[in-house]
Amino acid sequence: MEGHWEHGTKQQEQPEREWVVEYRVDIENVSYHHLSILIGQDVKSVQATLFEELRVEYSHVERIDVTVIRLEPVETHSSAHEFDMSTMFQP
To answer: Read out DSSP for 35-85?
Structure first.
């Protein structure tokens, strides 16, 4: 039996995608700049993933201040034919 919330059209779930998240963490007058690629369906799920990442990375710190500089979905994907795969860089 359908619940009252299931009647009618259902919202289509958005597929998970990659998001670029650039943020700064300030801890006791020291600033750390981060750039991460996170997976999520929308901004809310990406924020939750970012909070998880921060909890793991800074578990030893009691308080951190986080400033999100950029949070946007990755729009393009590169393929191997766009890169020079025939030569290798050797220092």
So the answer is: EEEEEESSHHHHHHHHHHHHHHHTTT-S--EEEEEEEEE------GGGS--
Spell out a b/e string for 35-60, using b for 16 or more CB atoms within 10 Å of the CB, else e.
Answer: eeebebeeeeebbebbeeebeeeeee
* Tokens of residue 27, six digits: 């801890």
Looking at the chain, how many residues does it have?
A: 91
Task: From first to last of the 91 residues of the chain, give the pLDDT tens digit.
Answer: 455 555 555 556 778 999 999 999 999 999 999 999 999 999 999 999 999 999 999 999 999 999 999 999 998 766 666 666 667 665 5
Q: What is the CATH number of the domain that holds 39?
A: 3.10.20
69 falls within a domain: yes
How many structural domains comprise the chain?
Answer: 1
